[in-house]
Structures are given as structure tokens and as C-alpha cells.
Amino acid sequence: MKSNRTFGRKGFVCAVLAAAALVACGGDSDEKIEESARGYVAAKDYNAATIQLKTLLQRNPNSANGRFLLGKTLLETGDPTAALVELQKAQELSVPDEQVLPEMARAMILLGQQIKVISQYAQTTLRDPAAQADLATSVAVAYALQNEPAKSLQQSQRALQSQPMYAPAVILQARLKVAENDLPGALLLLDEVLARNATDEKAGILKGDLLWRGKRDEAGALAAYNKVLEGTPNAVAAHVALIGIHSGAGRTTEARAQFDKLKKSAPNHPETLFIDAQFALQDGKPAVAREIAERMLKAMPENPRVLLLAAAAEYRLRSYVQAEGLLGRVLKVAPGHLPARHLLAQTYLRTGQANKALEALGSLIDSPKADGGSLALAGEAYMQIGDTKRADQAFQRAGKAAPDDTRVRTAVALAQFARGDTGAAVSALESIAAEDKGPRADFALVSARMQAGDTGGALKAVDAIAKKMPDKPLPDLLRGRVLLAKKDAAGAKAAFNAALAKDPKYFPAVSALAGLELVANNKDGARKRL
Length: 530
Known about the structure:
Blueprint: H1 2-27, H2 30-42, H3 46-59, H4 64-76, H5 80-92, H6 97-110, H7 114-121, H8 129-145, H9 149-162, H10 167-179, H11 183-196, H12 201-214, H13 218-231, H14 236-248, H15 252-265, H16 270-282, H17 286-299, H18 304-316, H19 320-333, H20 338-350, H21 354-361, H22 372-384, H23 388-401, H24 406-418, H25 422-435, H26 440-451, H27 455-468, H28 474-485, H29 489-502, H30 507-519, H31 523-529
């Protein structure tokens, strides 16, 4: 009883203190709350700003400045859908066009509404030079996204006429120079911007992109992105780029550590969610990727990247009809989207519709400059319909078009294997696996060895995969399956248990162990496993 009275007194004191805090907060005027929110926005503390602004709008739903500031804040935190709603309300509440239109245009571009931006704002003139430069730059971006570089350049020059050396317009002109393959000219423009502001986020990120992708200067790119993060620790694009560099170099630990920083600073940003889903696919968790993609599609239903992500998850889940439908939506928005066409062709190949796969590849394989990936898929399609002559031609062209692409080289080797040239195919796969940091060729080698009845060679290939994926359960699962083929049930059971030690919820290993229990006529054991 004594402890209950003590707890009651403490609870009463806490309640009184909480009420006092609420009264104190409630005593602030709307102007003070708005001023506080502006301070948080200026300091880029968007979570605190959002709390203040929502408090203000609960008290005064018709606060024009509150709606406008909340729209800006939501835009900065990567929620363009909600941002646009608030900005439109601010416009209805008579926030001046000079303030609201540039922000609305940015939100619309993020939502893929570049045609609307062009139709609504290409001819708009604002009285404030800075606002006009901002809006004209957004229109220029919209034209660039519509692949109209001349009109994009015209609008960026219009922005610079309103405000000379306006950094976003100069950065866009640098992007246009990149499109013209003028990399030195683009870097020169970016250096002009960075000379005035060494931590300019957009200029620094684009410079990093050009150094990384254009000049293969990894050290320079890393320095550029990290410089951005010095000035703007929450710069999502810089985090994303660093994750990409580390992932591409096979530095998984560094990539995941950088992602943890991104997730901490911007947990609900579309890029954060997108990468989270990509990691889920890499980790063999397509259901998790599907869930994230579905959340993103609610906000961005026609975004090609998100649609492709959702399609990839469905493909991994073997939901091929759903994958086909999502990919059709991608190609409706972006008919020339190469990864979408490739995945659609793969989807048709998995469902035995080789002719449809060839239709999906279409003119990609007829061009003299056809890419290796398209040609390799075409080769698979021709193999599936029994046209070995055209399959050989496609694979030979694929090898010449992409001699350094391990995916293409692996596909060519597998085609050799299918034709019965097993010695050359296995030799090629071993060579690719030895060079490649990824496990794709090793997987193909395991399959080839197993088809040839060489379980010893298959186990060696599994050992190579385990070195490349030391923390993943998949190599142990493969080892167990090979040992089962050798009729080594005890060894297989140990391998499957090793997979579960790395991931207790790894269902393929659970299923395999349950199967072993059934073979041993232990139905209760199988049921417990499941």
C-alpha cells in the first residue's frame, strides 16, 4: 500500500508539471510560435519546426504563414505530396506568389509533374528577382526532364538574367554541359559556384557525381560528397552517393554504416526508403521490399524508379503477373527505360513467353549499337524457342558489346553450357568468378557443376560464394543442397542449421530441415520446424 501511495504522489506531481508545461506553451502567441518555427527551419531542425507548426495550425488552421512554412518543411524532409497540399492551402490563404510558387514548382517536379510545371509556370513572371530566378530554374529543370535541352537552357538563362550567378541555374547549366559531353566545362561552372560557397550542397554533389562517374576519380568524389556533409550533415543526396560508391566497390560494411547515418537523419525520406528496400532485396527479403515499395507508391504512384522497385520485389517473389503490370506502368511513363525492359523480358522468360520477351526488347536488339544486356536476354529467348542459330548470334554480339560485363559473360558461358560445350563454359565461369567480387558467376558455376554431376566441384564453388558472402545464410543453404545430392543427410542438416545460425528466420533453411524430418518419418519434428 505504501508503494502505491508513493507512486500516486509521483504520478500526481508529474501530471501537474506536464499541465504547467502545456499552460506555458499555450501562453505563447501565434507570432511567437511562428517565430520559433522559423528559427528551427533556419537551423535545418525540421522535426522541431514541424512540431511547432502543427501546434500553430491546431490553434489557427487558417494561419497562412503556418501553412506555407509547414509546406516548405515537408518538402525539405522529402514528403512532396503533403508539402504540395500545404502549399496549395497557403496559396488559397493569399500567401504571395513570390513565396509560394517556387516551392510548389519544386514539389511538383519531385512528384513527376514536370509537364504541369511547364504549362503553369513557363510564362509566369514574378516581381521579386530571387523568386523569379528560383521559379525559372524549376521550369528549366522540368524542360530538362522532358528532354528539351534548348528550352531548358533558355529558362536557365532567364533565371540568370533575374539574378546573376544564381547558383541553382549555374548548376543546371553544368548539367546541360554534361549532356553535351562537355565534362571540363561542367566542372568549371561548378568550381565557380563552390568558390563562392565551398559547401554548396547541389554543386558539391554534382561535382562528386561527375568525378565519380565521369572521371572515375573515386577519391575526388568522396572528398566532394564529404565536403557537402560538412556544411549540411543531413544532405540526403550526399549520403546516397557515398552509399553507392561503397556498395559499388564491394565495401558492404561502409555502405551499411553510411545508410545508418542517412536513416538517422532522414528516416522517412523517399531515398532512405528506396535504399532500405534495395538492401532488403540484396538480403533475400523481397517481401520487406514489396511492403516498402507499396508505401512509396501511395505517395508517388507514377514514379518509374518506385514502380521498377516494386516490380523487382514481385519478380523475386515469383509474382510474375504483378511484376508485368508494374513494368507496363513504368514503360507507359518512360518508354525507353532500359532496366524496365530488361526486367520485363526476364519476367516473360520465367513464364515461358520467349516471343513476348523478344517483343519487349524490340528495337534494342536490332540496333548496331545494341547493349550487351539486351543481346544476352535475346539469346536466352532464342534458346527458349529452339532457334539456336540466332541464339548463338545474339550471344556472340553480347560478348563483343560488353566484354567486361560479368553478367553478360556469365550468360554467354551458360549458353555454351546449354549447347553441350561444358568444358569451355565451366572454364569461362571459373575465370569470371575469380575476377568478380560479386557471386553471380559462382552461382552459375554451382548450377553448371551440379548439372554435370560434379558435386565436389559444386562444393568448391560454394566455398567461393561463402568467402564473398560471409554473413549471409545462402551459401550454407547451397552447401546443404549439394550435400543432399551426395546423399549426405547429416552434412546437409549441419549446413542448414549453420544457415539458421546466421538468420533464425531464413525460411528456405527451415523448409529444408523440415523436409529432412519428413524423410526420417518425423512428422512432429517437421511441424515444430515450421
